[in-house]
Design a protein that fits this description.
Blueprint lengths: L5 E5 L4 E4 L2 E4 L5 E7 L2 E7 L1 H14 L3 H11 L6 H19 L1 H14 L13
Antiparallel strand pairs: 1-4, 2-3, 4-5
Length: 127
Amino acid sequence: MAEGFQHTHTENNPHQNTGNKKTPLQGALISKNVRIHDRRTSVRLEPEMWQALREVSEIEGCSIHDLCGAVHDLKEAGASFTAALRVFLMEYYRTAARTSQQVTSVQRQLKAALRPVENAIPHKITA
């Protein structure tokens, strides 16, 4: 689902010159306007967070604006909206990781590899 974001401002030289193309530096904040219900507001996030927000909105079948509105409505009074958005994205992916069959398989494999060998003879040091 394509979103019509308006890119308004970047901070701390957020583009790295790579020949003819400019690419955002990892971690640089990018400001974009989002609509929370009927109000437009500017949000500053890292490029990776914007990508995660796009991915989650596609998975959930809603617009980024709808997702931002839901996060805004559920955040604690006085809490930063941007911080609430970051926490939501982290919790969304943590929940997905806990319920992913692939992650569960990797966790089982790691636990099996880290279990002590059952009939191992302990090493004794004698002097």
